[in-house]
Structure formats: structure tokens, C-alpha cells
Amino acid sequence: MTWEVVIGLEVHTQLSTQSKIFSAASTAFGAEPNTQTAVVDIALPGALPVMNKVAVEKAIQFGLAIGAKVNRKSVFARKNYFYPDLPKGYQISQFELPVVEGGAITIRVGDEEKRINLTRAHLEEDAGKSVHEDFHGMSGIDLNRAGTPLLEIVSEPEMRSAAEAVAYAKALHSIVTWIGICDGNMQEGSFRCDVNVSVRRPGEPLGTRREIKNLNSFKFMEQAIKYEVNWQIEQIEDGHKIQQATILFDPDSGETRMMRSKEDAHDYRYFPDPDLPPLVISEDWIARVRSELPELPEAMQARFAQQYGLSDYDARTLTASKALAGYFEATVAAGADAKLASNWITGEVAATLNREEQDITACPVAAEALAGLIRRVMDNTINNKTGKDVLKKMWESGDAADTIIERDGLKQENDAGAVEAIIDGVLAANQAMVDEYKSGKEKAFNALVGQCMKASKGKANPAQVNEILKRKLG
Amino acid sequence: MTYTLKQAAELLAAGKTSAEELATDYLGKIAAANATLNAFITVDGDKTLAMAKAADAARAAGNAGLLTGVPIAHKDIFCAEGWKTTCGSKMLEHFVSPYDAHVVEQCTAAGLVTLGRTNMDEFAMGSSNENSAFGAVKNPWDLNAVPGGSSGGSAAAVAARLAPAATATDTGGSIRQPAGFCGVTGIKPTYGTVSRYGMVAYASSLDQGGPIAQTAEDCALLLNVMAGHDSRDSTSLEMAREDYTRDLAKPLTGLRIGLPKEYFGTGLSADVAQAIEAALTEYKKLGAEVIEISLPRTELAIPAYYVIAPAEASSNLSRFDGVRYGHRAAEYSDLNEMYEKSRAEGFGWETKRRILTGTYVLSHGYYDAYYLKAQKVRRLLTEDFLKGFTQCDIIAAPVAPSVAWNLGEKSNDPVANYLADIYTLGVNLAGLPALSHPVGFGAQGRPVGLQLIGNYFGEARLLNAAHQFQQATDWHSRAPAL
Q1: How far apart are CA A40 and CA A146, in angstroms?
Q2: Quaternary state and partners of this protein (chain B) (predicted)?
């Protein structure tokens, strides 16, 4: 009997604002504990929250980017519970009326495309951190993070495998970083995923879900979901019932473990925060944000295919990140042929970055420099193979392509007479191969081309060699 | 000598006294009377005199404003940098605020000198001042009587002439009722007029700061200082500064005073009714017209208030957890026990009662039946008032069903205390402005106050009416013999 996996995600994205969601304190990461705290963040008596408009604007940007409804009126609510790193004893969040509702994101697993619908996205504040390492028998509290703006993005339970869940998380990560509302730094906790997992027999109602909290890498997410799915199936097949619970994933053991059961679940006693009037977003504000929104990945992909004549695959690869797309367009703008630029960037450049475990933002060869190299391939100054060697040297030295070609004497030999002389020499020295070719062995032709290229020290134009050789043997 | 705020300002302006002299004089009075009245929780002569000297220096340098050097008292609910801000609670017994409330900032900027911090019901919860962790305040008119609450310390201090005026707050009557019980004048402005920034929150959607003073004119002067938009409070109204003294001199000819019949039924004691009747006669003499109106859902104010206020309080008071500041139990074995013991030890009974009530009404399964229903009632009560204001300019009503009761009389009966709030709660639920001014004496020679309720932003009209009344009568200038 088969099982169907049902997965929904709640993702906490830290919005990249200068100051906190309800105070003027800085949100910068890594400062000395409790140095970035205003009276609101320590929850002194009498302190009051004031909404950060930039955070709202980022929520609007997100809503528009995923085609969701941006609510003209949304309401902040208090989520009440006691915890030492929650200074007010409640978290200001949104409950009944969130700022963003609906919307959808396209994911791709293998060749399959799928639309994942979103339930909502709401604004809320982050809590502080408990610090256990430095204090013997005590806990420290660092409230620097308290009040950092979060957009909690909730999907519908529409993912059916770990791969889909990871693809969704990656797509979401790509969107929030693309539109610049979140730095996407998962190690620093800027993008944290809670994953709701349940299993059922196809066609049956939803099974009981367990929520895996705080996954901060795509790899762990995949491992955690796979482990959890197997665990749930085993439990049910052994005749047990799944109990609703919140669980944690331990990357060391690769297992999930219970954090709290439904019985321990808090009654958060949500109610509208009387310190904050409803958040009202005007049509004008939405229109302005819309006009300032950058071109989104899907639109850009379509444009790349159309404007540059690229394949869908190449267009999608180049629009995987805003930085990569920008690099491509800068290369083209600097005079490189679009198709060649695409080939070089998705080929040699991507492979080298991959080897060095870097992304395009760390590429030592600037787009203009790459264009300089591609131009030399285009005008037959060098051939493709030499180009790869030149790129390697550019990567290491930072020198321009022309400098390297000149210095190392890599210019392609385009003089037909000189090439003919080389070919004549090769034909004379390889009579056996010539005979083989003439007796019908096509392979011998390629071997002769190779010999000619070798004799030219790689500088001959392969197309020209081909042409002349064919004429002479023909 | 005792002075009104205005008199003190005039003496200072005329150079007939100095801020230091005034401060010294009042500090002496407080030292003499506070052991009896317990109106102040904290007095710090050094700080007061330093402020007074600074005010004198500012005046000497030609930088004096209207009220520079005039001493006032602050309710111990307004955070003031360097001052203990206890809010009447053991929880904050040793809490020294690192920042100023907007009200305190404004008062300091106006050159007002702080005489001390007045006693109050713990976290402003109460109407007798018996819920203070620092002992009950006594009514200066009768030491066996309560002064009212929660701003009992401010009202008693002004009544006993230990300060020309004091700041206070009103969530369900906490300015008007103690002003009434102590024979002084106090106004709660329209919700959003005075910033709540730095004012320890009890019930955020109801809390509002305001002045208590001897006269309506003084209230107008102090409200001029306390009011004003503050971007740090998101519920602060964005409106231009207004001069609350602007209409004081207007005659009352043609003023339509509405009497809600529901406020004058059974439950109102005869002595209070009589004093109010006499006051209304005086208002008629001044040219006002008195008409009967109806506020049919008045009695629903009590259950609605005692759902909404505790609900907000239960959440507002969660920050007092012993983690960052405030009382923390000496011994505990784990986190939960730290919370439980710290809060059990730090909060008094009334506070605990309201936290429990509030937690209950917000709980899963009860929220709709209590909190949402109460919010609906709140809208209905507001509609009643607005309908009333189509027939009259201001509404006159008792402040409380009786004069001040005896200390200890209701302290074991919370419901009796809650019921006595019937005439004041609706105003807070609707967010309307209302004042209370003295109109005579009732049983056992205890003061009676009259409440005047205005439409939104009607403060100047209310102050005008009370001022004209005070020009024609002298109830406001009677002082208790101590």
C-alpha cells in the first residue's frame, strides 16, 4: 500500500531593515549582547511599540511579488506566553487579519513544474536569545534580536515529497533575496523553516501532523522530512496513532525528537494589541511599491529567452539569482554575444565557481572582463579552447584577456598561407593516416585535425584547419 | 500659605517668591503630613531642590515659561529618570526608571518642579487606594475614609495642599473618583490626548493621563503641558496643540446640560443626589439649561469594563516576570518556579484577581463569549453617548454613588468596589473626556463631586463650565483642617 506525504511550510524570514519592527534600535547581527536594545525591546514599564514602515513596505513587496492580496487593513495581535527571551511576555504578531493573503510560487522538481499556494504572510517580532554556554548553572539573555522584524510565510499543505518541500523553500529563498526583503543568511537565522509533515493513504482525509521546528539548512530539511516520513509510516503500520507534536531535528543523529506534545501546547490567548491601531495600507502606497518592484525571476526568464534568443533552460539557469542575471546582462552590455555569454557563464564560469564553492558574487572575473574574453573568441583572435585557458589565467591573475593573449602569444593563426604550410607538413609526416582516411576511415580525419592543431601550438583556427584539410584530402 | 498652580506661577513671575522657596515650603508640608496621609510613596528633597534651583536659574536667565518653578507631584505610574517608579507595587519597589515618560518630559520642559511621587492602587487597579503595596492613603477630609483611587495619592496631596497640582491617570475613573472623594478638580481628557509613553500600562485602550488640581483653571494649565502628540505612542492623536484655557471665560448662557436618567436612579445615595441638585441649580443660574437624556445601556459598562480591562492587564503585566528587573523570588528550583514565586510575591491580591480574570476571558473557548461580547457592548455604550450628545452639549452625572466610604469597609468585597464604578466606566470605554469638580459635602462631611462628560475633544467646554461654576461658588477653595 502506498502512502501520500503531505507537507506545509512556515518560514520565518528576517526582514532586512536598519531598525527593529517596533523600536529604533539597530538590527545588525553580532553585536555585544544587549547593546541593541531600546526601552521597548527590554519591555520596560510604560514602553510602547511604534510600527516600522520599512518592514510594512517589505511585506507589501513580498505580497506583490507572489501575486497575493495585500490587505488594506490588517491587525496586530498579542501572542501571550512566558519565556525569558520574550521580554514582554507576549509576542506582537498578526492573527486574524494578516498583511498578506494568498499568492503562489512555482517550484520545479526534475522536469516537473508545480504551483504551490500560499495561505498568508504576516508581520511579527522576533524574540531574544537564551545563552546557556557562558554561565554555570544560569542562563544569559541577549535581547539584541528581540524585536527584529519577521515576515512569517505560511504555505498550503501542497507539497508531496521532501524534494518538493526543499524546492519550495529554495524558491521562496530566491524570491525574498531577489526582491531584497531578506538577506537569506540561513546560518545567522535570517531564513528559518518550520515544516509540518503528515502522511495518509491517497484520497483519505489529512493525517495528524507533526511540526519540525527551526530548520536552517536545505540539506537538514530534506534529511529531517525523510526521516520523519519514514517514522510516521512505521508508526502507523505498527498500529500506533500519530499524536500532534512539535519536534526538533538533530543533524548529528539524523533523527527527529519530540519537543512538546499537543497537551503541552500553549493557549496563546491572542487578542488585538491595544497599543497598535490597525495597519492601514493605502492604494497609493501599494502602487508606489509596485512601481519600485524589481523585475521578477519569471518575467526576467521569459524576457531572456525572447530578447537574447536563449533556450528556456539557459534563461532559467541565468535567472536563478538576481546577481547571476545581472552578471549575464552586464557581460552582454559590455559587447559579448548573448548566446556565447550564456554558454560561458553557465559553462566554464559556473563550473569553476562550483569547484571553489562560491557563487557569482564572489567571481574574480568581472562581467566586463569576461566580455573582453568573449569578444576575442568572437573576432577569432583566439579559439574556444584557448579561451578556456585564458579564463583560467584571468581567474588567477586578475589580468585582462588581451593582456594574457598578448603576453603568452596565444593569438590564433588566421593566415591561410601559414595554416596551409602547417597542414602540408602534417600531411607529409603522417602518410599512414592519410591512407587510412582515404580508405574510408573517417576517424583518421579527426586525428589529422588534432595533429594540425598540435603543430600550430593550438593557435590555428580549427574551422579553417577543417576546411583546408578537407580540400587537400578531397 | 497654600497656592493654586496659577497663584504660584504669578508669585514667581512677580519675583515675590522663588522656586526654591516654594519647593522648600511644600517639602516641609509633605514632611509634616505624609506620615498621617501616606499620599507620597517617594520624596527626594535633593532632587526636588536641584530642579527648583535650575528653574530659578532659568528664570534669572530670562528663560522662564508660564509655569517655570511651580512645584507639582507625579503619580507613581509615570516613569521618571532616576526616580523610583513603583506603580504602587512590591513588584517595582526598587525599580528606578532609566527614562522619562512623555508627560514627565513635558513637565520638566515646562520648568515644573517634582515634589515627589504619589501613592496609588497597585498598577492603578482599585478605587480606594487600599490596594497599594505601600499602605492605604487616607482622605484628608476624614482620616477614616478612603481617598478614592487609583490616583488617591494625587487627589489627597492636592486636597491637603501638599502640592498645588498633581499628574494622575484614569482607566475607569481613577482621576474623577478620587478628585470627587477628596473635594478637588480633575480631568480625564479624550483618549489619545495625553501620551501613554512611559506611563505604566494597566489597560492600554482605556488608560489616559490627566491633571488633578484645586481648580478647573489649574487643570487647564497643567493639561496644556501634559497633552500633545507623541510619535512614540501609536494611539496618541495627531492634532495641533490646543490651549485648554481658551474658553474659560465664556458665559454659560445656552449651555445644554444633559442628565442621564439612568445615573439618578436607585443606588445613588440621597446626600450625593442633593449636592448635585444644588449644583445644577447653580448651573441654571449661570445660564445653562438642564434636560433629561437617556443612556439606556449604562449598567452594561461594569461587566464590559471588568472583562476588557483585566484582559489587557493580564497581558500588560506579563512583563513583570522577575527576569530583567523588578521583584525576583530569592529561591526557586526552576524557571517556572521563578515565575510563579516572583509573581506570587510581587503582586497584590487585586492585581492577581484581575490577571486571573483577564487570562480566563482571553482563553481558548471563552474569548468570543467574553472579550468579543464586551467589545460589542463597548460600541453600544459609545453609541448611547453619541446619541445623548445630539440633545445636549455636556452631560452631568454623579462621580460615585456615595461619598468616600470607610477604610476597610469594602476591602474584602471586590464586587462592591466594582459596582461603585458604575458612573465612571462608560466614559473610558467610549474614550470621552470627563471632569469632576467639588460641589459640596455629604454624609459625615465628606466631599461630593459632580462629573461633567463631554463629546470628543470637548475638554475646553468642560473646563469652561467648571471654571464658571467655580467663579460663582467656593467649594473648590475649601481645604480640610489637618
Answers
A1: 9
A2: Heterotrimer of A, B and C subunits.
